[in-house]
Amino acid sequence: MGSILVIAEIQKGKVREASYELVSFARKIGAATNREVKSLVMGQGISAAAEELSKKGGGEVFAADDAALANYNLDAAFAAVKAAIAAASPDVVLVSNTPSGWDLAPRIAASLDAGFAPDCFNVDVEGGELVFLRRFFNGKLDSRLRPTSLPVVATMQPGATAAFDGAAEGKMTPLAVSIGSLGTKFVETKVASAKGVDLTKADVIVSGGRSLGGPEKFQEVIKPLADALGGAMGASRPVVDAGWLPHEYQVGSSGQVVSPKLYVACGISGAIQHLVGMKASNFIIAINKDADAPIFEVADLGVVGDLFEVVPKLTEAVKAAKG
Ligand SMILES: Cc1cc2nc3c(=O)[nH]c(=O)nc-3n(C[C@H](O)[C@H](O)[C@H](O)COP(=O)(O)OP(=O)(O)OC[C@H]3O[C@@H](n4cnc5c(N)ncnc54)[C@H](O)[C@@H]3O)c2cc1C
Fold it and tell me: Which of 35, 51, 178, 262 is 20 to 30 Å apart from 144, CA to CA?
């Protein structure tokens, strides 16, 4: 039996939360199939981050520290992964479903002649075999991918599970990497500017989902409540994908992670990718006409009803209470 290799990512000098989530998945299937969990941390000056991962995530953590790894570069990263694979002999490789993961994971799979399970939200063990779960059609269907042979490489969605934070004792092993000539060079990182709205600083956020049906409804229904509460508007991803609001309004795993004093979710189902962006809010009100919507599981106060009736009444009540 091989090991499980987690390809960790570094952000601002620390191991990303998404990588600790990979460790959660790895430890779950490792315990069920008797595989050791190993990780790779790559970058420049990353030994403290790798040490922290070994203490918090456990297992052997390979630290590939090289100036060529300071910024993500496919050729350099792949050289580090190759060295880690030689050292860890994994038959399962877990990568985050992030832009660099999308770039790196297929190359790892091709080099290992491995099966590839992209964009998964969970992995299970059934009868000793791995099963990767993946969503289709906006979460309406789940598919179950059962590798017919090993090794297998999978990318896991950030936010699909909790980051591992149990007590663990691992060890950090420096990993020598031979990085040859690079086919591409890093030019610069451009951080998108939050044009006028910074949801991470808002005390109150009133968010709307796909059910609003169009951009004008945000102005007619969501904005008045946000204004009455002195807060900002937010949105679920389909709203942004449809172009009803710009990306800086998106709350969730591929948008903003927010923790306001009050979060009002209007017509939002509560998909895991949305929940990870707002469940740390101090008080959550959910308005949804489906009493079984998952958003109610994290809500402090739930209203089962039509948002087009409830939200305007709430807006009037807030205005009246404020005099
Ligand atoms: C890799 C990846 C990253 C993602 N990142 C994000 C992310 O950052 N943020 C995010 O939000 N999603 C993200 N998603 C998408 C996520 O999986 C869901 O598809 C999305 O959150 C659903 O948005 P929604 O709740 O607005 O729409 P739906 O799931 O369609 O839900 C609409 C809800 O509105 C309710 N409703 C309908 N009409 C009314 C009415 N008149 N009154 C009251 N309730 C009503 C329905 O009962 C339903 O619960 C991501 C998905 C993937 C695969």
Answer: 35
3-class DSSP assignment, residue 62: strand
Answer for the pair 235, 251: CB distance below 8 angstroms, yes or no. yes
* CA–CA dist 311, 287 (Å, integer): 8
Choose the residue to mutate in 95, 134, 269, 279 for probing ligand 1, maximizing ligand atoms within 8 Å of C-beta.
269
User: Residue whose CA is closest, atom 8 of ligand 1?
Assistant: 252
The pLDDT value given to residue 280: 85
Q: Which domains does the chain have, with CATH numbers?
A: 3-174 (3.40.50.620), 199-322 (3.40.50.1220)
pLDDT tens digits, 145-182: 999 999 999 999 887 787 887 777 899 999 999 998 99
Considering only CA atoms, which residue is closest to atom 1 of ligand 1?
157
CB of 88 closer than 6 angstroms to any ligand 1 atom: no
**Number of the ligand 1 atom closest to the C-alpha atom of 287:** 43
